[in-house]
Amino acid sequence: MMMNFKNLDEFWAFYVSQHSKAATRRLHFLGTLSGLLCLLSSLYSGRWIILLLAPIIGYSLAWYSHFFIEGNVPTTFGHPFWSFLCDLKMFALMLSGRMDKEIKRLGKRPLL
């Protein structure tokens, strides 16, 4: 089912609801971190083939978490660009220790 969102903020609230379990968010964090490390490694070494690993590792971890932990369909399937932006936002919030506060702000309790 394709849902329509008016803006990125509206989609963000939906995105957070689809990442209700801490294990899902942690695997997304690891996937994003791995993708960024592949990018940096590729830039540093000049081996552009490493870039191919970034989406493979990142999406594999994220999709695994949706199918086997969260029990829902990845938002990437319906909204790839907004999902990517929200993943980066979630990564930054987790890195800074502010994701739980954001979940509470949106009225969703973090599940441990």
Automatic annotation (TrEMBL):
Pfam families reported in the protein's UniProt record: Mpo1-like
The entry's keywords: Membrane, Transmembrane, Transmembrane helix
Transmembrane segments: 27-44, 49-69
Domain of life: Eukaryota
InterPro entries hit by this protein: Mpo1-like
Name of the featured protein: Uncharacterized protein LOC120264422
Species for this entry: Dioscorea cayennensis subsp. rotundata (White Guinea yam)
Encoding gene, per UniProt annotation: LOC120264422
